[in-house]
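User: Let's play a game. I give you a shape written as tokens, and you guess the letters that built it. Ready? Here's round one.
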């Protein structure tokens, strides 16, 4: 272990001198100094100053079983001793990858029985781009290259995944999107629904998919990708009319449906996968994060019998990563899945913890600054507003009040994220009721201070 042997100020100075952080304004951070996390247990983080911080975000939506599970450390050490690495290229395999692929095929819904391993969520979505285009090549429809996704969706940071994503700020920074990726609007009723009812709006936004398919030309469309619930976009829960209509449209035009389950997978929504909670039937699922509960990086594309049959029938799929199916990651993932299953973590979420959290979370809507309060399973958001009836946005630059609220949470030793003027939670699935009560006390206090 790397000991925390330096004073915080020195660690911060070294961090500022040498460490470039993801999704961070470097100058602003370097002036202030990073908060340095030194250890964690359950839902609690400890920083270099000895503060105990309640992690309302499960790291980055990934710590599903909570911090500090010895079993995962032991499995990793055992696997490192026995076989720390071997690749799965060129007609070789190993037992952890075989066992994990079998387990994922059992857990995944429908006929999603085949697993292509990747290193993260981003590169899993890059795999998906290449796989669906290759799929249509093998099916002798090579003109089907276009993938449709959504504005304000998030699918990762590689150039392919960021192109699929609909984060306009990301697109601005580097010539995105790559060719043949097009976007439709998101189903965010609170911000964009105008005078429509949520049901009308959900239908209208889903029908944008059909309009886009017709605009592009149905014979050119390869796939549609969406998160069952948009996570990084602000925990946007689509109205109930949305996904059934999307499902109807993809079936009508015979295009592949990719569910990006990087956040929604492995219990976050109260079932193993978000598509089970929302009644979506994908051809491909992207998974990462909760697959290993963040203890070690790993991602995967889980594909249907039909997709695998076509890919296997074609020329060699010229794609893969050194760490595809990494044995240590696979062993850790298997142990994580065992804990989720045998400890009854997801059953407890569904029957007990998620309903408890939902009641508490929705009660925030009595706060003068809180409009919509949404929560599905263990992912929730509140929209901050100066006028609930009008679903108004704050006049100041979007995100200002969100940032202020996040800073107040930070000061109150609660990690809550802001996306624009939405505040988000996604705690470890193992959080207790007493810890939820504590989370709510700190969240409300932070809202009061920001108001
Ligand atoms: N897809 C979704 C839905 C995500 O939320 C994320 C990350 O937050 C990704 C993909 C990218 O995953 P990673 O950061 O592991 O590359």
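Assistant: Ready! My guess for every position:
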């Amino acid at each position: 272990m790397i000991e925390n042997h330096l004073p915080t100020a020195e660690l911060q100075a070294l961090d500022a001198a040498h460490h470039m952080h993801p999704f961070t304004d470097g100058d602003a951070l370097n002036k202030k100094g990073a908060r340095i996390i030194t250890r964690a247990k359950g839902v609690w983080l400890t920083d270099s100053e000895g503060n105990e911080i309640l992690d309302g975000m499960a790291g980055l939506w990934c710590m599903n079983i909570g911090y500090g599970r010895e079993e995962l450390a032991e499995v990793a050490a055992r696997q490192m001793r026995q076989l720390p690495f071997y690749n799965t290229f060129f007609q070789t395999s190993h037992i952890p990858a075989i066992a994990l692929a079998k387990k994922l095929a059992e857990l995944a819904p429908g006929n999603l029985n085949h697993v292509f391993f990747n290193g993260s969520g981003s590169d899993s979505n890059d795999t998906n781009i290449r796989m669906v285009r290759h799929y249509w090549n093998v099916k002798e429809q090579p003109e089907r290259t276009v993938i449709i996704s959504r504005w304000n969706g998030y699918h990762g940071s590689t150039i392919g995944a960021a192109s699929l994503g609909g984060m306009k700020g990301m697109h601005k920074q580097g010539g995105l999107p790559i060719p043949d990726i097009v976007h439709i609007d998101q189903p965010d009723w609170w911000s964009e629904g105008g005078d429509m009812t949520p049901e009308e709006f959900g239908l209208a936004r889903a029908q944008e998919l059909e309009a886009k398919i017709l605009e592009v030309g149905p014979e050119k469309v390869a796939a549609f990708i969406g998160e069952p619930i948009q996570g990084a976009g602000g925990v946007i829960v689509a109205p109930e009319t949305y996904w059934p209509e999307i499902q109807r449209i993809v079936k009508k035009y015979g295009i592949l449906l990719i569910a990006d389950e990087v956040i929604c997978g492995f219990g976050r929504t109260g079932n193993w996968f978000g598509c089970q909670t929302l009644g979506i039937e994908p051809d491909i699922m992207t998974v990462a994060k909760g697959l290993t509960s963040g203890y070690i990086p790993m991602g995967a594309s889980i594909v249907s019998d039909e997709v695998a049959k076509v890919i296997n029938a074609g020329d060699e799929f010229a794609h893969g990563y050194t760490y595809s199916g990494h044995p240590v990651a696979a062993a850790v993932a298997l142990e994580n899945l065992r804990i989720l299953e045998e400890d009854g973590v997801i059953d407890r979420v569904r029957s007990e913890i998620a309903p408890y959290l939902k009641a508490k979370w929705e009660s925030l809507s009595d706060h003068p600054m809180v409009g919509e309060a949404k929560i599905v399973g263990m992912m929730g958001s509140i929209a901050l507003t100066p006028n609930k009836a009008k679903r108004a946005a704050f006049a100041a630059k979007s995100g200002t009040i969100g940032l202020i609220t996040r800073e107040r949470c930070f000061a109150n030793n609660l990690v809550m994220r802001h996306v624009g003027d939405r505040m988000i939670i996604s705690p470890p699935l193992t959080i207790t009721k007493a810890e939820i009560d504590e989370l709510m006390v700190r969240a409300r206090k932070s809202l009061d201070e920001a108001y």
